């Protein structure tokens, strides 16, 4: 199979042009993907979460009604919105890659790499709310200890014989 030198050179130029076009498409994908964010609001409107292309939460906002929710329900709503936002960012990236015009094999490879780099979301049925601590049992305080009764004052026997008051004026005997 002999190829004429002119045909070989033309084939090489065509291959290089195709590779160059593919490289330009890849650069365009990267530029669009670097700015990629996705915002998801919960169905009841209490939570709005925004994730970046890596799936990290970059914004989390609560409506006023969130303060009236049970903490377990609120945490489930937040986690659900995060899961949906991460799924949305993956779908958005896939759309960017498919619309870029890269070869199908290249698109599949890029999308596969993107999905494998994302943290694996917890399935909704496997997500459990934080366990609530069991409050300690209420035990009444022990009764205060009884003080022993004060002994009755005893009359001290002294050597003075009669009662003598020192604190009165004149130090006289009563």
Please describe what this structure looks like:
It is built from 3 helices and 3 strands, in the order H-E-E-E-H-H. It has helices spanning 5-34, 71-99, 104-117, and strands at 37-41, 47-52, 57-62. The protein has a 3-stranded antiparallel sheet with strand order 1-2-3. Helix 2 packs antiparallel against helix 3. It is rod-shaped, with a radius of gyration of 42 Å. The N and C termini lie far apart (150 Å).
Ordered list of secondary-structure elements with their pairings:
Layout: H1 5-34, E1 37-41, E2 47-52, E3 57-62, H2 71-99, H3 104-117
Antiparallel strand pairs: 1-2, 2-3
Helix pairs in contact: 2-3
Outline of the structure:
The chain has three helices and three strands, in the order αβββαα. The chain has helices at 5-34, 71-99, 104-117; strands spanning 37-41, 47-52, 57-62.
């Amino acid at each position: 199979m002999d190829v004429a030198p002119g045909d070989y050179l033309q084939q090489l130029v065509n291959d290089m042009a195709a590779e160059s076009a593919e490289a330009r498409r890849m650069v365009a994908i990267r530029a669009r993907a670097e700015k990629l964010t996705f915002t998801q609001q919960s169905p009841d409107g209490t939570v709005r979460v925004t994730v970046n292309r890596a799936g990290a939460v970059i914004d989390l906002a609560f409506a006023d009604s969130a303060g009236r929710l049970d903490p377990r329900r609120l945490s489930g709503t937040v986690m659900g919105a995060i899961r949906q936002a991460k799924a949305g960012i993956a779908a958005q990236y896939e759309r960017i890659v498919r619309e870029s015009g890269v070869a199908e094999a290249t698109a599949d490879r890029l999308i596969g790499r993107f999905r494998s780099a994302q943290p694996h979301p917890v399935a909704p049925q496997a997500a459990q709310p934080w366990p609530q601590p069991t409050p300690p049992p209420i035990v009444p305080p022990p009764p205060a200890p009884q003080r022993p009764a004060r002994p009755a004052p005893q009359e001290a026997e002294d050597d003075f014989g009669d009662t003598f008051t020192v604190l009165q004026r004149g130090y006289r005997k009563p």
